[in-house]
Design brief:
heterodimer; A: 486 residues; mainly alpha; 19 helices; disordered N terminus; B: four-stranded antiparallel β-sheet; 6 helices; 45% helix; elongated
Chain lengths: 486, 196
């Protein structure tokens, strides 16, 4: 065993040589201390938006979806734009957890927990839109789920991508929840054993399922975790594939393309990683976790943003190529007239500048390590990806085959408030998460920290065992006997 | 003291004392466990803050059987998706009330378009495998909401690694165990009561 590894790779946990107890202390600190002023400063506006947005949803359901700006030509607007945007954001969490886990990317350990929480919250926001788009969502169960009914029974149509979506998103949501909670169990036990407050001990005692740290439990646990990762990795890809099929299986120019599944998956990872960056750049600062979520992690995520941004750029140009090469007038019209120069050209060019041009700055290493630049870029990508969905949906719909039915679309205040409401919900729930649950996987960070120590003191392992064998213990043995009642 | 605790609890329940040594470092727990097993001391379990690689081998644990169960759950999920889709879209089983189908003619397309059924095959397979695998694990290891920990050893969910020997098992020798613990730099030697 040599010390070379530490020279080749940045340490995953910085700040000298943190002991295992220090890692617990750092991650658990926000759960033990009172929230800071900064936390309240974020929480109060988030709750306000949340309440205002959900009140608007109540208004929309009582009045009907006529309160939205949709019309006969543009039947999908902000609702589906926001749906796809949120689902896309919800992709990074499980991608980080599952795909990076299977590829043995150890840097995931510092960021996977909060990315998974982000996934769950984003999917809740996304799922809200199809629900409220139904107008009378209490009938939705029969439109989505294959439930026995009194009309024959008349079943849902399994040939429809909208129904595949129902299965994909509900599976993704529930598997993500299980994956997230399964990873939390050992960390909840850490907090249970640590806290002195009676109420907290009881609550975390219930939540930690009686975890003891037994290696017989760990042995199966790791296998089950790997199985979950192996299931979740293709699941991530399937979800946005199926979301893209909502468009791709139609015959609308600009939607009817076979590259949609990989294009949407790349876009989803792109926007998801951007949102993870937005949240973690703030969280690592306010929670004092800079030595665990290091600048190296930010650098890695910026590289993923660059790579997926280039994939998205490639998809945009492929669409143009096919618009020209296919010789289809309608396809060509959508891309060369409607998107580039049409009434929504401003949205199209916003998308191109945010998603394709600006991420190129990440080719330059110091920019990936400049937190201000990365933060601004992550916001740009969030905006750009929102516009991508808006452009796809609205520019394909607003000018259809019959010029007499061409129309324009702009959202009403109801749609704007509902969108802000989902953002409010997202941040409210995320802030509660950072307050009450360990935001970084304590057990997994300890594991990578221990490897880092082994790498750094390559010969330590053998030296210690040699010393032990010779009876020269590095740790003074002071055995004492007690009886614990467990 | 340990024997007193033993006598007190043995009659009443399955709670019994374990002879525990705690350590500060990962390599210590690996080495002490390996040697304990080689020298025939009865290992009850190890307790660690994170999964220590190599400890399964040191304890002599077999590879988990749960993946076989997962495969069965996956087959069940696939079967569920297959029967759900074919029965509701294609087959009309009048004699099963809940499965009564209503084949719909959609543009004269086939009633059994299997490629269109693939997404739901996949999703339900994943859904059943994931949930049932975790449930199997949690029930098998008795890790369930509100369960009390079977044993509590200070620090093992934080920064300690513990080896628990079973004093009631054959081959247990307290002096030998103490000497072994000391050899690998034990921090505390405790007798902790817990459920087997």
């Amino acid at each position: 065993m040599s010390a070379t590894a530490s020279h080749l790779r940045e340490p995953l946990v910085t700040g000298g040589n943190p002991q295992l107890g220090d890692i617990t202390d750092a991650i658990v600190a926000p759960m033990e201390n009172k929230p800071s002023g900064l936390w309240w400063a974020a929480f109060i506006p988030a709750v306000t938006l949340f309440v205002a947005g959900f009140t608007t949803i109540g208004y929309q359901i009582s009045e009907g979806i006529g309160t939205w700006g949709l019309n006969k030509t543009v039947g999908w607007g902000w609702d589906i734009t926001n749906f796809v945007w949120w689902v896309g954001i919800g992709h990074a969490g499980t991608a980080i957890s599952a795909i990076l886990f299977l590829f043995r990317q150890k840097w995931r350990t510092a960021i996977n927990r909060s990315a998974e929480a982000m996934t769950i919250l984003a999917v809740i926001c996304a799922a809200l839109y199809p629900l409220i788009h139904m107008g009378r969502p209490w009938f939705g169960a029969w439109w989505f789920a294959p439930l026995p009914n009194m009309r024959g029974p008349l079943w849902v149509n399994f040939r429809s991508p909208l129904l595949w979506d129902f299965f994909a998103i509900s599976t993704y949501f529930s598997i993500s929840c299980v994956f997230w909670y399964f990873g939390l169990i050992p960390d909840l036990a850490t907090f249970r054993d640590r806290t002195n407050k009676k109420l907290k001990k009881t609550i975390y005692g219930i939540l930690s399922f009686g975890w003891t740290g037994s290696n017989r439990d760990w042995s199966h646990y790791e296998i089950v975790y790997t199985i979950l990762a192996a299931l979740a990795a293709p699941l991530v890809l399937s979800v946005h594939t199926i979301v893209s099929m909502d468009f791709a299986t139609s015959v609308i120019p600009g939607w009817h393309t076979t590259i949609f599944p990989p294009y949407f998956v790349a876009g989803a990872l792109f926007s998801g990683f951007a949102m993870v960056l937005t949240l973690l750049i703030i969280a690592r600062k306010t929670q004092k976790l800079e030595h665990i979520i290091t600048i190296g992690h930010i650098d890695n995520m910026a590289k993923v943003v660059l790579a997926t941004g280039m994939l998205v750029g490639l998809a945009y140009s492929t669409e143009f190529l096919i618009g020209w090469y296919s010789g289809s007038n309608y396809e060509g019209f959508i891309f060369f007239s409607s998107r580039m120069k049409g009434p929504y050209a401003w949205a199209y060019w916003t998308m191109i500048s945010c998603n394709v041009i600006s991420p190129q700055i990440f080719w330059y290493g110091p920019m990936r390590r400049n937190l201000v630049v990365v933060f601004i870029m992550s916001i740009f990508v969030n905006i750009g990806m929102w516009f991508e969905r808006f452009v796809i949906i609205v520019t394909s719909l607003n000018r259809d085959y019959l010029p007499s039915s061409w129309s324009r679309y702009s959202p009403t205040w109801v749609e704007v408030m509902e969108y802000l409401g989902t953002i409010g919900f997202f941040f409210t729930a995320y802030l509660l998460f950072v307050r009450f649950l360990p935001t970084v996987s304590i057990a997994e960070v300890k594991m990578v920290a221990s490897w880092a120590q082994k790498d750094a003191h390559g010969s330590h392992h053998h030296a210690a065992s040699g010393a032990a064998a010779a009876g020269l213990n590095p740790v003074p043995a002071s055995p004492k006997e007690e009886v614990h009642h467990g | 003291m340990a024997s007193a605790a033993h006598a007190e609890t043995a009659a009443t329940s399955d709670v019994r004392p374990f002879f525990v040594g705690t350590f500060r470092e990962e390599h210590q727990i690996l080495e002490v466990t390996t040697e304990a097993r080689e020298s025939g001391l009865p290992i009850h379990d190890c307790y660690t803050p994170y999964p220590v690689h190599g400890l399964d081998g040191a304890m002599g644990l077999k590879r988990s059987w749960i993946p076989y169960a997962s495969f069965a759950f996956g087959c069940f999920g696939f079967f569920l998706a297959f029967s759900l889709q074919t029965h509701t879209q294609f087959v009309d089983f009048d004699w099963v009330p809940i499965w009564k189908g209503w084949p719909i003619i959609i543009g004269g397309k086939p009633f059994l378009p299997w490629p269109a059924f693939v997404p739901v095959f996949f999703e339900l397979t994943v859904l059943c495998t994931g949930h049932l695998t975790v449930l199997t694990y949690l029930i098998y290891r008795r890790i369930l909401p509100g369960m009390k920990p079977k044993i509590h050893i200070d620090g093992v969910t934080d920064d300690r690694f513990a080896l628990a020997l079973d004093p009631s098992a054959e081959g247990f020798d307290e002096e030998k165990a103490r000497a072994l613990f000391a050899k690998y730099g034990v921090v505390d030697v405790l007798t902790v009561e817990g459920k087997a």
